[in-house]
Amino acid sequence: MTQSQYGNAASRLDDLVAPAEVPAQRNGGGPRSADLHAKLDERAAEIVARYPADRSRSALLPLLHLVQSEEGYVSPAGVEFCADVLGLNKAQVGAVATFYTMYKRRPTGDWLVSVCTNTMCNVLGGQQVYDTLTEHLGVGHDETTSDGKITLEHAECLAACDYGPVMTVNYDFFDQVDPDSAVAVVNELRAGGRPQPSRGARLCTLKEMSLQLAGFADPREEAVADGLAGDPTLAGLKLAQQHGISVAGYDPNTPIKGSQTGDKPAPATTRPAAATGSTAPDVKAPDDKSPQIRTAETRNPDAKTPAPDAPGTKAPVDGAPAGPADAKAAEAAGAAANQPASDAKPAGDGGTDAQERSLKSAESKEAASARSELASPAVASEEESDK
Question: Which of 160, 190, 205 is the last residue of a domain?
Fold first, then answer.
């Protein structure tokens, strides 16, 4: 590698740790790092104080969010600030900041619009939504509009498959979007509005969201709200209730038994199955349990279910259990199929016979060596002199 190539490689490595600029080491640090200290030192000290003194580096994640709440991304000066506060080097901070996608390493718009293009949402039209926004906004993945308001990205999964296709704005959900509704959302954002997400609180900007993630409450009205479970999420539960499927012996009203009070659990109650509307007659299993309940008991046994290896318990097996003779025959067949290794010794464990042969060989070599020493002239002359 030539000197110029080495210099280029080192420059690229510096860009990974702190892109665009490398501030001077702080005795005071670079000017932007000093500005961050003036603005964020008080809150940074509050974050660090949440952790034990010898575990202060655990504060790195909220500190990175704090930096992002000030600058809109984790800048090189922000990396230096976090390293300064926690006594780390910039490479350690940069490694964490580049690992998590919620930390942005380049200036990001007020509104981060993420469109899921993974399997479920893609099948339901997520890719069409993303392509439409790309054309409408004139930007691609991880790019920001010219007015600096919107950054677009495609996401591999937003953990809301039951509401697909989904889009998030600063990680708040807009469910079951289509190209037209997605364009309407971004148009309202560019016009200065804050459209209401499908679930949860009203929207906040990327900086406001980062401040919350750093552990500081948002004082705005309606900044926090509970997201209620919708019909797609509850579909499975409703089907289970409709068909009378439940965990065996489970009663949500059963109190937890206290170790001191001696409370006894209330007896389990069962609910009759609701009418399914089907004209086919219901046929019960021979043991009067539905297949779902039998499966649940097999996978999640309760205290009354005996363990498979408990004394007096016979574990079910497929077919007749193998007897001792069968086991020995199988062992002999396996040993016969064991081909010799390259040194003509068995490839597997040779067993006790091989060990005995090795011991006998060692003993015979030791005895031969002893006889050879006794028969040597030096030993004979030494014995004559002793006499």
Answer: 205
Contacts of 113 (CB under 8 A, 6+ apart): 133, 150, 151, 152, 153, 167, 168, 169, 185, 186, 189
pTM, two decimal places: 0.56
71 and 116 fall within a common domain: no
Residues pairing with 169 in the sheet: 113, 172
66 and 115 assigned to the same domain: no
CA angle 92, 141, 127 (to 5 degrees): 130
Tens-binned pLDDT, residue by residue, of the chain (387 aa): 444 444 544 444 444 444 433 333 333 455 677 889 999 999 999 999 999 988 999 999 999 999 999 999 999 999 999 999 999 999 999 999 999 999 999 999 999 999 999 999 999 999 999 999 999 999 999 999 999 999 999 998 999 999 999 999 999 999 999 999 999 999 999 999 999 998 878 889 999 999 999 999 887 776 676 666 778 888 888 888 888 887 777 676 777 665 555 555 555 555 555 555 555 455 554 556 666 666 666 666 665 665 555 555 555 555 555 566 666 777 777 766 665 544 444 444 444 455 566 667 777 777 777 777 666 665 556 556 655
Indicate the number of domains in the chain.
2
Query: In this structure, what CATH number is given to the domain that contains residue 197?
Result: 3.40.30.10
How many whole angstroms separate alpha carbon 269 and alpha carbon 185? 48
Last residue of a domain, one of 99, 119, 137: 99
Nearest to 110 by CA among 150, 75, 143, 144: 150
In a domain, 211, yes or no: no
**230 in any annotated domain:** no
Does residue 306 have a cis peptide bond before it, meaning omega lies within 30 degrees of 0?
A: no
Which of 191, 193, 112, 92 minimizes the C-alpha distance to 155?
112
Q: Determine the residue type at 111.
A: W
Same domain, 64 and 121: no
Question: Is residue 309, in this structure, part of any structural domain at all?
Answer: no
How far apart CA 34 and CA 81 sit, in angstroms, is: 8
Q: Which domain holds residue 152?
A: 111-205
**Residue at 382 is within a domain:** no
Residue 123 is inside which H or E element, if any? helix 119-123
